[in-house]
Amino acid sequence: MRKLILSIFFIAVACVSASAQFQLGVKGGMNFAEFKIDNIRSNTKTGYHFGAFTSFKLGKIAVQPEVVFSQQGTEFRFDGQDFQSNFNYINVPVMFKFYLVGGLNVQVGPQFGFLTGATSTFDPIEQIETGESSIRDYYSESDVSLGLGVGWDLPINMNLEFRYNRGLTDISDQNIPATRNQVYQISLGFRLID
């Protein structure tokens, strides 16, 4: 899976880098994450994300690969008690940006996530309260999402973006309810090379 992701990334970079306008920058912002779970009501959990991006622009179209650390997870209520799950991912979105007017753009593209940590106050197998404990073994090491968003490339070397990442794959790895990530992100980026 990682080889496929790297291959897609390098092919995209090679195809557009020769004649494209190149940008390099850093970004960060807020996450509003939740799980889509079959039989448990999930609530939004606030976290953050930060990382780096490159962008290759040809006319009104750009390809923007990124590497982003992302705090995700959910808060939920089960059997009358409140619980919280904390998931950390290294995400690699490859966004295609379509420019409308000036720096205003719409974005769509795949995102590949790699789980780096998962803790919860609830054991999803035993369905009991545990205190803060690792549940990484219960979940897949990878995640695939579809990113949809809007952005604005400001003339002062800053980007403002709103993005929705909808999980396409079931991240549960054991005999637990199907679980998919859903994350809303608000990001502010700084273009270091423009």
UniProtKB/TrEMBL annotation:
<feature type="signal peptide">
    <location>
        <begin position="1"/>
        <end position="20"/>
    </location>
</feature>
<protein>
    <submittedName>
        <fullName>PorT family protein</fullName>
    </submittedName>
</protein>
<feature type="domain" description="Outer membrane protein beta-barrel">
    <location>
        <begin position="21"/>
        <end position="172"/>
    </location>
</feature>
<dbReference type="InterPro" id="IPR025665">
    <property type="entry name" value="Beta-barrel_OMP_2"/>
</dbReference>
<keyword id="KW-0732">Signal</keyword>
<dbReference type="InterPro" id="IPR011250">
    <property type="entry name" value="OMP/PagP_B-barrel"/>
</dbReference>
<dbReference type="Pfam" id="PF13568">
    <property type="entry name" value="OMP_b-brl_2"/>
</dbReference>
